Amino acid sequence: DTGVSQNPRHKITKRGQNVTFRCDPISEHNRLYWYRQTLGQGPEFLTYFQNEAQLEKSRLLSDRFSAERPKGSFSTLEIQRTEQGDSAMYLCASSLMALRTTGTQYFGPGTRLLVL
Amino acid sequence: QQQVKQSPQSLIVQKGGIPIINCAYENTAFDYFPWYQQFPGKGPALLIAIRPDVSEKKEGRFTISFNKSAKQFSLHIMDSQPGDSATYFCAARNSGGYQKVTFGTGTKLQVIP
Hints:
heterodimer, A: seven-stranded mixed sheet, 48% strand, B: 113 residues, mainly beta, six-stranded mixed sheet, five-stranded antiparallel sheet, 11 strands, globular
C-alpha cells in the first residue's frame, strides 16, 4: 500500500502523560503536514515540513507539542504533559511539490487521542 | 477568522437525489479548491478538486461548480447513493508559502434508501 500510514490508530492516556504519534508519508512526497481535528470540525493545521525542515507552526501548537521529521522520511508528533483538551484526531498528510504537480495533500487515517 | 464558510451543516436526501453543498471564501490568494470525503473514524480522502480558472469540473457523479467573481463554489452529487453518506469538507489552498490548506466546517450528508 502506498498511502499515508499513521500509528497508533487509537491512544488512550492519562492527563499528564506524554504521547508520541508516527506518520509515514507516501514515499516520494517531500511535504508533510500535521493537522488536528475535533468532533464536528474540519482539520486545523498544526505544522508543516519540507523534507526534514519544519517550516511553519500554527499558534495552535503550544510548547507541549513537538514534531520532527528526521531524514525527511517519517515524522513524529509528541505531546508532553497531555491535557484533556488535547483529545482529538491527529491527522497527517503528505504532498509532492514539483513542476507540473498539483501539490494535493493526501491524508492518513489519523490517530485518535483520548486524554482521561 | 473563518476563511472558508461551508453550508449546510447537515443534509438528508433520498437515494437518487442531488445534494448540493456550498462554500464561500474571502482570500483571493487561494488557488486550488479540493473537496474531501470523510467516513467516521477515517482520514479525509480527496474527492475532486478545481482551479479558479475553470467554472466546472466533473468526475463521475461528482461535479464542482466554481464562481470566481462571487468567490463561491459548490459540490453536486448526482444520483446519490447510501454509500455516499459521509462528511464532506470543502477546502482552499494558498498560492504562496507552504500552500496552507484551510478547511470548511464540514457537511454531514445522509442518503436514505
